[in-house]
Specification:
The protein has 58 residues and is an alpha+beta fold. The protein is built from three helices and three strands, in the order E-H-H-E-E-H. The chain has a three-stranded antiparallel sheet with strand order 1-3-2.
């Protein structure tokens, strides 16, 4: 299942610009609609969320 940037922001709090950057860096999987809008794969977002929970912020 794919989520729009707004749906991701509401559920995870990730800014759409961050999502776009992470997608281009290959950190999360996405698809593009015919109009060019991104949809982000939920399992990829869950994996990223789990990884970020383990990070130490300095």
């Amino acid at each position: 299942m794919y989520l729009t940037p707004n749906q991701v922001y509401k559920k995870y709090g990730y800014h759409p610009k961050s999502l776009a950057r992470w997608a281009e860096e290959g950190k999360i999987e996405y698809t593009r609609s015919p109009g060019g809008h991104r949809g982000y794969l939920v399992s990829s977002l869950e994996k990223l969320s789990d990884e970020r929970k383990g990070e130490t912020v300095l």
